[in-house]
Design brief:
single chain; alpha/beta; Alpha/beta knot; 6-stranded parallel sheet; 43% helix; globular
Length: 182
């Protein structure tokens, strides 16, 4: 399966269902890049329309690629080399089309119960590139979900209290393991 992933910082909801842009975090850059490399993801796109946020992320990536940092921790530099910064989802889709020659199957993720595709069914249907979308804040907007080909079944925990709010870093790792792990 040829998998790409995108972490969307916009358009996403806040807890009041307002459409917002969230901030890029160093943790999301590092940790998701490491999961992407571990599971053979082609590219990890970080999507944010705010120029200063993209500059911040670019400085982190550049720092780990410099010789002193590379010598200190080459594995982090290798993982971060898969990160591509984009202003919007359309740019991501265009790049995947240009690189693979095909439009990706767009698969959104959500912690909410929904009409969804199972991990098994997605693996069976995935021919060509697959773009997994992950949201920050309180999730991707309905507009993003509507432009997706599928919504992946949610990760369900022990559900003792109905609590289901994993960090996006944890959700990415679990989903990549279920789709691409041995």
């Amino acid at each position: 399966m040829e998998v790409y992933l995108a972490l969307l910082h916009h358009p996403v909801y806040n807890k009041n269902k307002d459409i917002i842009t969230t901030c890029i975090t160093g943790f999301d850059l590092h940790d998701i890049a490491r999961s992407a490399l571990t599971f053979g993801v082609k590219k990890y796109f970080v999507v944010n329309p705010v120029e200063s946020q993209l500059e911040f992320a670019g400085r982190i990536i550049k720092t780990w690629a410099e010789e002193e940092s590379y010598v200190h921790n080459w594995t982090r530099a290798e993982a971060l080399s898969r990160v591509v910064l984009k202003k919007d989802l359309a740019e991501v889709i265009t790049q995947i089309k240009n690189e693979s020659g095909k439009s990706p199957i767009i698969v959104a993720t959500s912690a909410r119960p929904n009409q969804s595709i199972s991990f098994t069914d997605l693996k069976a249907k995935a021919e060509g590139p697959v773009l997994l979308l992950f949201g920050t804040g309180w999730g991707m907007t309905q507009e993003v979900l509507d432009q997706s080909d599928y919504i992946l079944e949610p990760i369900v925990g022990a559900d003792q209290n109905g609590y289901n709010h994993l960090s996006v870093r944890s959700a990415v790792a679990i989903i990549l393991n279920r789709l691409l792990g041995r």
